[in-house]
Amino acid sequence: MQKTAGIHHISAMVNDAQRNIDFYAGVLGLRLVKKTVNFDRPEGYHLYFGNETGQPGTVITFFPWSKQLKGRIGTGQVGVTNYIVPIGSSKFWENRLEKFGIEFSSSVRFGERYLKFNDPDGLQLELVERNEGQINRWNFGGIHEENAIKGFGGAVLFSARPHKTTEMLENVLGLECLGQEEEFLRFKAEGQLGNIIDIMLNPSVRGLMGAGTVHHIAWRAKDEEDHQRWRALLQNKVYYPTEILDRNYFKALYFHEEGGILFEIATDPPGFAVDEPVTTLGNKLMLPSWLESKREELEETLPPVEVRVLEEDK
User: Fold this and answer.
1) Mean pLDDT, to the nearest integer, of 78-89?
2) Which of 73, 79, 205, 231 minimizes the number of CB atoms within 10 Å of its CB?
3) Is the bond preceding residue 288 a cis peptide, omega within 30 degrees?
């Protein structure tokens, strides 16, 4: 049976690009590994944040657009995105969130303690301590590798039809069901990052796409050959996948599972160093070849942004 290693990336929608960078780079300490544009709507940025190299399983991406309406988190969406931090670092993160004036709470799920908080646009985030995942060597602001976010722990899916999403995770993507606890059903993929997926069994209100919501969740394919096999499997299972699209840093295909959530399958290669050195990732606006002729126009219309150490860390 074909199996995914887990989450490749998660993409979300927000309003303000600089505020987004200040939070994910300045507060959470993730690296801006790619500053490019939305290939489908190049008048807006597409920003990628991850570990020091943008390894699959660490990358959250954003479509910032100031004019988009506020969304509503609910069914048909990824409701919560969670990250792994090193064992023993939760107190550091509590202190850091307090320093930046970010409200947080804690909860326990399947024996693990989660630190819960929202980003400035309302996306729901969690931090959880685990041994899994390699240390993130990217140091920024007040965060060093002993406390740095390693990558995704996983996600909580808010499905409109939880039993159908369960069938997809088990019988198509190849995740193992670990059991149920109260209103959550837990699944595990084989990878070290982004491998724990919880489905909420009591669906909330219907989700509305907009700022502060996840647009899609992407699953890992080993390479282009594996990607082709995934597409054939999805066609055979009548999920109507899109054509394979070139996103420069990975190949992608999309489909909706029956719980209403937009899924993507993305290739691990070629990665974010395909068009710039690892040492300078995220410093320059990178464009695909078919948009390079519009660079001057895009650089004039896109708002200026920068990765900066915030006042609280100076």
Assistant:
1) 98
2) 205
3) no
The amino acid sitting at 29 is G
Q: Contact 57/198 with Cβ under 8 angstroms?
A: no
How many domains are contained in the chain?
Answer: 1
Q: What is the CATH number of the domain that holds 62?
A: 3.10.180.10
Note whether residue 213 is domain-resident. Answer: yes
Read off the tokens for 72: 């509503």
Per-residue pLDDT reduced to its tens digit, 202-215: 987 999 999 999 99
pTM: 0.97
Instruction: Kindly state whether residue 2 falls inside one of the protein's structural domains.
Output: no
Give every CB contact of residue 298 below 8 A, 6+ residues apart in sequence: 37, 42, 43, 285, 287, 291
Per-residue pLDDT tens digits for 124-164: 999 999 999 999 999 999 999 999 999 999 999 999 999 99
Residue 135 resides in a domain: yes
The answer to whether residue 1 sits within a structural domain is no
CB 11 within 8 A of CB 247: no
Q: Hey, CA dihedral for 282, 39, 221, 73, is it positive or negative?
A: positive
Residues 6+ apart with CB under 8 A from 168: 257, 258, 259, 263
Segments forming the whole domain that contains residue 18: 7-313
Q: Cβ-count burial of 236 within 10 angstroms (0-12 exposed, 13-18 middle, 19+ buried)?
A: exposed
